[in-house]
Specification:
The structure is a single chain. The protein is of the alpha+beta class and 340 residues long. The chain has a domain of 161 residues: Alpha/alpha barrel (Glycosyltransferase). 43% of the residues lie in helices and 13% in strands. It is built from 11 helices and 11 strands. The strands form 5 sheets. Strands 6-7-11 form a 3-stranded antiparallel β-sheet, with no helix packed on it. A two-stranded antiparallel sheet has the order 1-4. Strands 2-3 form a two-stranded antiparallel sheet. It is globular, with a radius of gyration of 23 Å. The N and C termini lie far apart (66 Å). This is PelA/Pel-15E family pectate lyase.
């Protein structure tokens, strides 16, 4: 009887110690979590760091914004918190951390459209927030979390196993959406746009300077996600191969984006495209029918040279990049050797 009581008391002490276990960033994530289960990307309209002690005034503002309910998968929000909470839970086993991560996963499951796409924001659908959003890998980040839940890997093996099956179904729907949104030009599959109308699945405009296009950036993350699918279907293989071919075809050879000193400008520097035989780059946006790189200002007018972009946007947006290099040189060849 005494041994039994000791065991019970020991279990209670362990449970109590676990509930008191703390990590500053994780505790702050609990403060910021919305009732929907998701998180937002800003405080007082600006990006913030969880690794800080918030004042009482901050906490009042946080509570107010939490009550407003804005939650998103933009800028790695929600994905970032889920992954951090399950990671820290393994060393700081506070059950609140795990519960919050599981609620975040349920948020992703609720946010997904029946057609498999994800809006940038949920439940708020104002402006372009309702569009299916690949921009900055938003939807791909969500799907990678859900695939890890389904496969019980990459730290997500600690979550409730009952989440595995709905997560697996969500991934299947996500793959279908990806296949249905790959842009076809004159019967040939190419890449993907940053965002799509959630009903028609047509390429859509988001911010004023984010016009319908084929993206040299977002296409990469989508292909990488498709390549992690076990036993890929013929349709998935075709989508991957076509996407890689398109990225190869639109590569801008022998060029780089250079940043140079520009005294008297607001930031003290400027950007331009220069010749460089050792460098290849890709444009963020290509015209859907012509594959011609283009840019846009905040007036939504399309231009075709970086120099035509207003200074603020020219120096404040990733118009060119080398996003596909690793995919083309390493990841796709390895995948192709395995599956083709």
């Amino acid at each position: 009887m005494i041994i039994k009581k000791s065991l019970v008391m020991g279990a209670l002490l362990i449970a109590a110690a676990s509930s008191r276990a703390q990590d500053l960033q994780a505790d702050n994530m609990l403060l910021f979590q919305r009732s929907s289960g998701g998180w937002f990307k800003q405080l007082r309209g600006k990006a913030f760091n969880y690794n800080q002690v918030f004042s009482d005034a901050d906490k009042i503002q946080i509570a107010k914004e939490v009550e407003e309910g804005l939650a998103t998968i933009d800028n790695e929000a929600t994905k970032k918190e889920i992954r951090y909470l399950v990671k820290i839970y393994k060393t700081v086993p506070n059950p609140k951390y795990l519960a919050a991560a599981e609620d975040g996963i349920r948020y992703l499951l609720k946010a997904q459209y029946a057609n498999g796409g994800f809006p940038q924001y949920y439940p708020d659908h104002g402006l372009y927030r309702n569009e299916i959003t690949y921009n900055d890998n938003a939807m791909i980040n969500a799907l990678n979390v859900l695939q890890d839940v389904a496969e019980q890997k990459n730290g997500l093996e600690v979550v409730d196993p009952k989440l595995a099956e709905p997560a697996a179904q969500a991934v299947k729907k996500g793959v279908i959406c990806i296949l249905n949104t790959q842009i076809k030009v004159k019967g040939v599959l190419t890449g993907w746009c940053q965002q799509y109308n959630e009903r028609t699945l047509e390429p859509a405009k988001a911010r004023a300077y984010e016009l319908p296009s084929i993206s040299g950036s977002e296409t990469v993350g989508i292909i990488e996600f498709l390549m992690r699918q076990p036993n890929p279907s013929p349709a998935v293989k075709t989508a991957i191969t076509a996407g890689v071919k398109w990225l190869t075809d639109v590569k801008i050879k022998g060029a780089k984006v250079a940043q140079f000193d520009a005294p008297g400008t607001p930031k003290g520097f400027d950007k331009r495209v220069e010749a460089d035989p050792s460098s290849d780059i890709w444009a963020r946006y290509y015209e859907i029918d012509t594959n011609r790189p283009f840019f846009s200002n905040r007036d939504s007018k399309k231009v075709y040279n970086l120099s035509e972009v207003d200074y603020e946007r020219r120096t404040g947006y990733s118009w060119y990049g080398q996003w596909p290099v690793k995919l083309l040189n390493q990841e796709f060849p390895a995948w192709s050797a395995k599956w083709n």
